[in-house]
């Protein structure tokens, strides 16, 4: 699976689409950014409701190529700009973290 396929998988809209498409290694779901820093792996998609630019900084630190913001959280402009600068894909969905995580897990296990 590649990053661009997240849009359909998560019933999401792309918020920041200036990124290099590439493979997804897995996913990490958390709203605690220190937890993400400690446990997410390079290539994991970050699935969260934390809609601020620090989320992008943490995604960049751990090598997450994409962030999926769940529950239709409002996304501030500075977060979008930070994601653009880092080349990190940013998606927004109405779905919950649980549902996006389950769909991604299933897609990667098939």
Gross morphology: globular
Physical arrangement of strands within the biggest beta sheet: 1-5-4-3-2
The number of distinct β-strands equals: 5
Query: Helical stretch count?
Result: 5
Question: Which features characterize this protein?
Answer:
five-stranded mixed β-sheet; Udp-n-acetylmuramoylalanyl-d-glutamate--2,6- Diaminopimelate Ligase, Chain: A, domain 1; globular
Summary, kept brief:
The chain has 110 residues and is of the alpha/beta class. It has one domain (3-109): 3-Layer(aba) Sandwich (Udp-n-acetylmuramoylalanyl-d-glutamate--2,6- Diaminopimelate Ligase, Chain: A, domain 1).
Structure characterization notes:
- The protein has helices at 6-9, 33-39, 53-62, 77-86, 97-109, and strands at 12-16, 26-29, 44-48, 66-69, 89-93.
- It is of the alpha/beta class and 110 residues long.
- It has one domain: Udp-n-acetylmuramoylalanyl-d-glutamate--2,6- Diaminopimelate Ligase, Chain: A, domain 1 (3-Layer(aba) Sandwich), CATH 3.40.1390.
- The protein has a five-stranded mixed β-sheet with strand order 1-5-4-3-2, sandwiched between helices.
- The longest helix is centred in the C-terminal third of the chain and has 13 residues, at 97-109.
């Amino acid at each position: 699976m590649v990053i661009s396929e997240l849009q359909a998988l998560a019933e999401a809209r792309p918020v920041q689409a200036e990124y290099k498409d590439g493979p997804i290694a897995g996913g990490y779901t958390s709203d605690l950014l220190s937890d993400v820093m400690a446990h997410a792996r390079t290539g994991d998609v970050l699935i969260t409701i934390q809609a601020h630019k620090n989320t992008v900084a943490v995604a960049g630190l751990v090598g997450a190529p994409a962030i999926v913001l769940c529950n239709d959280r409002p996304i501030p402009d500075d977060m979008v700009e930070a994601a653009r600068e880092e080349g990190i894909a940013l998606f927004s969905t109405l779905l919950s973290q649980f549902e996006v995580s389950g769909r991604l897990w299933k897609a990667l296990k098939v």
